[in-house]
């Protein structure tokens, strides 16, 4: 089974192409240029592999949480590609992809993933590795760092820039966190790895049924919030 995976949930624009055990990935800092970069990166990756979209079995995308604009771009591009090629889609939670990235990099099996959500908040979730997948012990939420939910007992690995930007987050978990890699972000390869088993289980949906996972439903700033320098 070959799939394409996309992510634009952070300031990195990433695409991956592959199957179990073999992935090609392109990732670049995009700033606000995801809409310009994503399709050319997909085309370049397919050309490198001498493949066409119709040679694939499905498309996965980072559904969220993350940048509202980035999530809409990734979902919209994935929908357009899937519709044109008649492929199923799967949206993968970005925080779960971070847990997978931590597992791939460090072998972490109990992961608290935290992304900066701006507005002095974090997106956070906790996952435990079971069998060939992950079980969420805390589903993705948006919260003030000092009020982050604490997962059940035992030691945990921390992943994500939320821990670097808000040191109080690490203090909140105390000795429950035994390792931290604040450089981990959702990767297109991790999204692809997670999507493979779900496609194999028949969990793909039609392009029209795919949707981002926003978590926070505050999608616009007031004038006062913009004047204060806040951003979503």
Describe the structure.
- The chain has 232 residues and is an alpha/beta fold.
- The chain has two domains: 3-93 and 186-227, Nucleotidyltransferase, domain 5 (2-Layer Sandwich), CATH 3.30.420.40; 94-181, ATPase, nucleotide binding domain (Nucleotidyltransferase, domain 5).
- Helix content is 32%, strand content 30%.
- It has helices spanning 34-48, 68-85, 94-106, 162-165, 167-173, 188-200, 223-227, and strands at 3-7, 12-19, 22-29, 58-64, 89-93, 110-116, 122-130, 133-143, 156-159, 177-181.
- Strands 3-2-1-4-5 form a five-stranded mixed sheet, with helices on both faces.
- The model has no long low-confidence stretch (mean pLDDT 93).
């Amino acid at each position: 089974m070959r799939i394409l995976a996309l992510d634009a949930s952070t300031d990195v624009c990433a695409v991956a192409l592959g199957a179990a055990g073999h992935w090609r990935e392109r990732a670049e800092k995009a700033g606000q240029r995801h809409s310009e970069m994503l399709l050319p990166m997909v085309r370049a990756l397919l050309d490198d592999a001498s493949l066409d979209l119709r040679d694939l079995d499905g498309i996965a995308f980072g559904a969220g949480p993350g940048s509202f604009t980035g999530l809409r771009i990734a979902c919209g591009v994935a929908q357009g590609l899937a519709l044109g090629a008649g492929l199923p889609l799967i949206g993968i939670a970005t925080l779960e992809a971070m847990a997978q990235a931590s597992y791939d990099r460090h072998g972490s099996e109990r992961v608290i993933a935290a992304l900066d959500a701006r507005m002095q908040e974090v997106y956070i979730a906790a996952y435990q590795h079971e069998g060939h997948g992950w079980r969420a012990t805390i589903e993705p939420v948006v919260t003030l760092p000092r009020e982050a939910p604490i997962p059940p007992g035992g030691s945990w690995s921390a992943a994500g820039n939320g821990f670097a930007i808000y040191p109080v987050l690490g203090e909140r978990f105390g000795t429950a966190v035994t390792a931290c890699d604040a450089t981990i972000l959702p990767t297109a390869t991790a999204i692809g790895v997670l999507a493979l088993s779900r496609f194999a289980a028949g969990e793909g949906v039609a392009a029209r049924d795919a949707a981002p996972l926003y978590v926070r439903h505050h999608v616009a700033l007031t004038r006062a919030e913009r004047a204060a320098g806040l951003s979503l």
